[in-house]
Structure formats: C-alpha cells, structure tokens
Amino acid sequence: MDKKAKIGTAGKCGDKVRSDCYIEIELTKAGGIKTSLQSKVDSMYGDSINDLLIEMCEFFELKNAIITIEDYGALPFTIAARFEAAYKKLFPDDQREFLPEFNKKNLYTTTKDRMRRSRLYLPGNEPKFYPNAGLHNPDAIILDLEDSVAPSEKDASRYLVRNTLCANDFYGAERMVRINQLPRGLDDLHFIVPHNVHVILIPKCESAQTVIDVEEEIKMIKADRNISATIYLMPIIESALGVLKAYEIASSSDKVCALAVGLEDYTADLGVERTNEGRESFYARSAVVNAAKAAGVQAIDTVFSDINDMEGLRASVMEAKSLGFEGKGCIHPRQIQVVHEAFAPTEKEIEKAKKIVLAFEEAEKKGLGVVALGSKMIDAPVVKRAKHTIELALLNGLINKNWKTE
C-alpha cells in the first residue's frame, strides 16, 4: 500500500449540493479513529452515519485517522462510495470492496429484444438524481461514467455507480451503464459487471474489435466472479469512421442488442453545427438504422438536447420513428412521456397489426403453412412487426389486453 499520501478526499460540498457528501480522511500516527460530522440531519441520522464510518474503518483496517464529513442528505450507499473513493486515494493498491446490501427489488434480468423506447441518462457523479429516476417510468436508466463526468471525478464515480447498482431501486427499468472510451472503459467493467448490470453502452465505437475487447473483458470478469447472467452491449456510433463501420460493429457479437447514434460528437467530427432539422446528420442516422436492421438489432436515436422544447422533441421522435429508430435517449425525466407517446403506433397502424396477428393465428390453427391477408402474403417479419405494434399499443394503453375478443 502507498502510505505517502496523508489526506484523501471525495465527494462534493457547498450550498447547492444535495443528496451527496464530502469526506476527508487524514491519516495520523496515533489516536485511533476520530470523526467530525456536519449535517442538517445530525439529530436524526448522526449516530447511524458515524456507525457507518466506523464500520468502514474496521473493514479496511484503518486504525488511526481523522475523518471529516460534510453531509447534504446523502444516502448510506453514497456515503460509503465517497468514503471508499477517499480511502483508495490513500491506499490505491487495496482491492477490497465495501459493498452495500444488494436491493432485492433489482433481481430481475433483461432480454435482447426488450423495449427500449426511452433511456434516461444520469451523470455518474450526481447521486441526487438516482433515488427517484425509476419513478418516471423510463424503459432504461443509464448511469453515465463518460461525458457527463469530469476527468478529475472519473475514479470516484466508479464507486458511486457500483453502489447505485447494488442499493438503488430502479423500479423495473433496464439497468445500463455507459463506460468510458477504451482502454479506460475496460477498467470500468470491473466495477459494474458483478452487480447485475443489464446493458453496457460502448461510446465512440469505431470498430468491431472494440466490441470484442469489451465482450472478452466481461467474459473474464464473469468467470472470475462466477456470474451467469447475460450482459448485452450497445455500441454508440459517434464519428464518421464509426458510421462507415456501423454494420461491422452491429454484427460483431451476438451480445449486441442495439446500435445507437450520438450526434453531438458526430457533427463535431464533421466540423458542422448540429441543427434540429438534422440535414447534416441524415446520412449517419439512416446508415445506423440500416446497419442495425441488417444485423437484426434495435436502432436507437440520439438525445434531444433542448429540455424545454417539447414540440421539437416530439417532431424529432416522429422523424426518428419514420427512419426506423425504435428508441431515443433522454437527458431529463420530462422528456420520457413525450418520447413514449411519439413512438406509440397510430390508430391505422394498430388496426393493420390486429388484422395481421389474427390472420396469422387463424392460419396456425388450421395448420396452414402460408398466411394471406386479402391478396397479400404475410411472412414472419411482417407478423413480428405487427406483434411489436400491438405490444406498443398495450404499453401506451391504446388497446385493451383482451382486444382479440372485443
């Protein structure tokens, strides 16, 4: 262990901070463990906070230190993450992990073709957003270790994201993490793979080898930790080279469940301004959709950056849907409902889907190998799309679950 450093710090402090804390660990030669707590909830939770600090000191065998904590309403798993991040600055070679108790409400898995209309991005260093994120009913929650986290906070964010995966209630949303660009992203995997992450987003992906490298690292971690659950991958195309290699990337692994496009970095790569009209990115979006469909995976559209323009968002989703995208990133909870509504099928689409599904099921009952609706033949992909439309209609309350008997 490196004992040259005497003070380790982690977290945030200040009047605008909430649901977080600042922790300072100062090593001393003697005197045991001394704690100093400043908290608005000291009278209610002061004893439990101090108990947690002492428990962590015992876990890490920290004998002599002054621990100062400024608490702004942080939950226990956040305090534990901040303490561990501060401790690891002092002892970077210590591989022990102080893990919060796993929330049993999160013991659900995912599927490759799960609905991913909305994915809510949460900055990996902002615990104030975590507790209620699932209440907004996004299809997925993304804990972001990449662009939303300052370089100086990258390491500390890993502990916070890891503890969030363990302890926070995701309310049934798919559990996603966006790692950093490789090679740093490979180290991120060790903090998230063991804790029931469902999908890992690979940013700025420009080759199949990047996907393969991530998949191989995941396999190694799963073998070491005896993990059997399937973890899916979502590469994000964010450059001109990535667009050119989109199909290669989308088809690089059977663990790829979707291909996403990120237009902020893509337009920067082109040297042009990103606009709401999107003429500058039409080729890239179309290429990503085509690559995804050719590889048999979902196509996911970029985020809409103006959180106050709901009509602009709706128009953007409608355009994305017309291009073949099946989902869109969200950077604010208020965007989720608009995204879901805009991706919902129209009445005409629902009626057509009903006829196709009923005709297919009737043909199956009769043991027919060929299905026809009027003068048109219905093949498996058409039936699959129709069933998907019905599923969307059910999710949005546009039809009754007993629609077949109505």
Q: What secondary-structure arrangement, pairings included, does this model have?
A:
Layout: E1 7-11, E2 21-27, E3 33-39, H1 42-59, E4 65-71, H2 76-90, E5 118-123, E6 140-144, H3 154-167, E7 174-178, H4 184-192, E8 199-202, H5 208-225, E9 232-237, H6 240-244, H7 246-250, E10 258-261, H8 263-270, H9 282-295, E11 298-301, H10 310-323, E12 327-330, H11 334-343, H12 347-365, E13 371-373, E14 376-378, H13 380-395
Parallel strand pairs: 3-4, 5-6, 5-12, 6-7, 7-8, 8-9, 9-10, 10-11, 11-12
Antiparallel strand pairs: 1-2, 2-4, 13-14
Short description:
This protein is of the alpha/beta class and 406 residues long. The chain folds into three domains: 84 residues; 240 residues, Alpha-Beta Barrel (TIM Barrel), CATH 3.20.20; 59 residues, no CATH class. It is 41% helix and 17% strand.
Order of helices and strands: EEEHEHEEHEHEHEHHEHHEHEHHEEH
In the predicted model, the low-confidence regions spanning at least 5 consecutive residues are none
Reported for the largest beta sheet, the result is: 8 strands, parallel, barrel
Strand percentage lies at 15-25%
For the record, the CATH class of the largest domain is Alpha Beta
Q: Quickly give the CATH architecture of the largest domain.
A: Alpha-Beta Barrel
Number of helices: 13
**Class from helix and strand fractions:** alpha/beta
Count of the separate structural domains: 3
State mean pLDDT (0 to 100 scale): 93
CATH superfamily of the largest domain: Phosphoenolpyruvate-binding domains
What is the overall shape?
elongated
Spatial extent as radius of gyration: 24 Å
Quantity of strands, as a count = 14
